[in-house]
Amino acid sequence: MLGEKIRGHLYQACFTYQTAKVVQIESKFIGLLYHVILVGLLISVIVWIFILNNGYQYVDHKHSTSSTSKVKGVALSSSSKNKKAVWDSSDLSGIPGTNGAFFTATNIIVTDEQMHDECPESERPGYTDCDRDEDCKPIFQPYHLGHGISTGTCNTSTHTCMVSAWCPIEDDSGATSGKYSKLKYTNNFTVFIKNNVYFPFYDKRRSNLVEDLNTSYIRSCLYHPIKHPYCPIFRLADIVGMSETKEYETWRVNDELFEAMTLKGGIIGITIIWDCNFDYDERQCLPAYKFERLDSYEGNDISQGYNFRYTSHYAEDGVTKRTLVKAYGILFVIQTEATARAFHLQTFCLNVGSCLGIFGLAPILAELILLRIHKKRSLFAERKTEKSGAIKDLLIELKALREKSDEPVEDNSA
C-alpha cells in the first residue's frame, strides 16, 4: 500500500503540470489603467536609462595622461634686499617641482654671498636667545629651528648665540608683512599647458591642442571661458581669479585676488576635464577647465601659503659661496579627469534585461487598485479567488470518489 502511494506521488510530480488561472475582467477603467502604467514605465525606462544615462554605452574611466607646462614673463623688483632688479620666467619658474605641476615665485628674499663662517644666529624670538656664553651650551650641537652648529659663544650685540653656518644668516622676518617689495608684473605671466589623454579600451587619443587651433591663433590668444574656451595659454592672474568663483560666465578680469596671494603664496588646482562620446566624431571630444584653490587660507595663520628655499653655488677667489633664495609663490597643480563612452552591445543587453523586470510593476499596481481601492473590489475578489469547502467536507468527497472507484465491475455479458 505504501509503495502504491509513493508511486502515485512520483507519477503526479513527474507527469503533471500546473498553471495559473487567468480571470479576464471586462473593465474599461482597469484595462486603460494597466496600459497607462505599462506605457509610463516604458517611457521612464527609455528616458531615464537610455537617454539621460546612456544605458546603451560602456563608460571607460581608465585613461593615461600627461601634462607639460611652459611659463613666460618678466618681473621687476626694486627692493634693496634683492639686488637683482629684473627677473624672467627662468629665474622664477625654472625650479623643479612635482610631476604635473609648475611654480611661479611672486615674492622672494635673496641672501647673497653666503660662505662657511661663524656668525650670530637669527634675531627672531625663540631661536637662540642668550645673555652669556653658558646659555649657548652644549657646543658642537645643532640648534632646534636654528641655522648652524653652536660654538658656545654669546653675541652680546644681538643677544643670540654664535653658530658655524652659511653666513650671513638669512633674515626673512619681514617677508610676509610687505616690508620688502613684491615682484611686479607676475600677474601678467602666462603659462602654456599641453595635455594628452589616452583611452586604452577604445584606443583613442586626444590633446587639448584641438584641430581648429593653429600657430597664429595660439600666439595671440589668452584663455577665456566664453571667448576662447580652447586656448591653451593662461594668464596666471586669471587662473587665480577663476579659482574663487564657480560661475565662469560672470567672471571678469580682476587682479585683486592674485595680489592678495603674492606675499605668502598659495596652491591652485587646474583640472582638465574630458567627457568623450565616441559614438560621434572624436573631434567633438573637447577639453573643459576647472580652477580651484587647494590650500587652507582662512581661520588658521600657521604656515599659510606656499614657499621653499633653493641655492646656487659658485666659487670666488677660491672660496665657495652660495646665493640663498627663499621663494614665496603659487604652486599650480594640473590634474586630469577623463571618461569615454560609446555603444557597447553587452552593456546594452544587460540594461535591457534589467529593465524587463520593471514591467512586472504594471500588473501589481493594477491588481492593487482592483482588489483594494476600486468600489467593486469585493466582486472582483470573489471572481478572482476560488474558495473550497471545509476540509472535512473535502475529505468526505474524496473518500466517496475512492470507494466508487473500488467497486467491482458487474459482468452483464450473460
Automatic annotation (TrEMBL):
Q: Which InterPro entries match?
A: P2X_extracellular_dom_sf (IPR027309), P2X_purnocptor (IPR001429), P2X_receptor (IPR059116)
Q: What are the alphabetically sorted keywords of the record?
A: Ion channel, Ion transport, Ligand-gated ion channel, Membrane, Transmembrane, Transmembrane helix, Transport
Q: Which domain of life is it from?
A: Eukaryota
Gene3D superfamilies (UniProt xref): atp-gated p2x4 ion channel (1.10.287.940), atp-gated p2x4 ion channel domain (2.60.490.10)
Q: Where in the cell is it found?
A: Endomembrane system
Choose one Gene Ontology CC annotation of this protein and give it: plasma membrane
Q: Which GO terms describe its molecular function?
A: extracellularly ATP-gated monoatomic cation channel activity; purinergic nucleotide receptor activity
A single GO BP:
response to ATP
Spans through the membrane: 29-51, 350-371
Q: Which residues form a coiled coil?
A: none
Report the family membership: Belongs to the P2X receptor family.
Indicate what this protein is called per its UniProt record.
P2RX1
Q: Which organism is it from?
A: Bugula neritina (Brown bryozoan)
